[in-house]
Amino acid sequence: MCYIGQSIEKIDGMAITTGEPVYTDDRELSDHLYVHIVRSPHAYARIIDIDVERVKRLPGVELVLTHEDVPATRFTAAGQSFPEPSPYDRRILDAYVRYVGDPVAIIAADSKATAKKAEKLIRVTYDIFDPVLDPKTAIEHKSKVHTEEDLSCHFDFGCRPKQNLAGSYEVGYGDMDHALSECDVVFENEYSTQAQAHAMMETYRSTSHLDEAGRLVVVSATQIPFHVRRITAKALGMEEDQVRVVKPRIGGGFGGKQTMASELYAAIVTLKTGKPARVVFNRKETFSMSSSRHAFHINIKLGATAEGIIKAIDMQALSDTGAYGEHAWTVLMVAGHKSLPLYNQAIAARYQGQVVYTNKMPAGALRGYGVTQAIFAMESAMNELADKLGMDPAELRLKNIIKQGESNPILEGSSESASAKLESCTLNRCIEMGQKKIGWQEKYPRKQISDSKVRGVGMAITMQGSGIAEIDSATAEIVLETSGRYTLKIGATDMGTGCDTILLQMAADALKVDINEIDVLTGDTDEMPYDTGSYASSTTYVTGNAVLRASEDLKKKVLNGENAPVTGSGYFSGDTSPPPFIAGFAEVEVDIDTGHVQVIDYVAAVDCGTVINNNLARIQVEGGLVQGIGMALYEDVQHTSRGHMMTNTFMQYKVPTRKDIQGLQVEFVPSYEPTGPKGAKSIGEVVINTPPPAIAHAIANATGVHVRSLPIGPEGICMGIIKQQSKVALIPDFVQSKC
Amino acid sequence: MDIRTMINEETRTLEVFPGESLAALLRRYGYLEVRTGCDTGSCGLCTVWMDGKPILSCSTLAARAAGHSITTIKGVGKEGENLAKFLVAEGADQCGYCSPGFIMTVLSMKKELKNPTESAIKHYLNGNLCRCTGYEGQTRAIKKWLVSSKGA
Question: What structural domains and CATH numbers belong to chain B?
Answer without folding.
Answer: 2-74 (3.10.20.30), 77-151 (1.10.150.120)
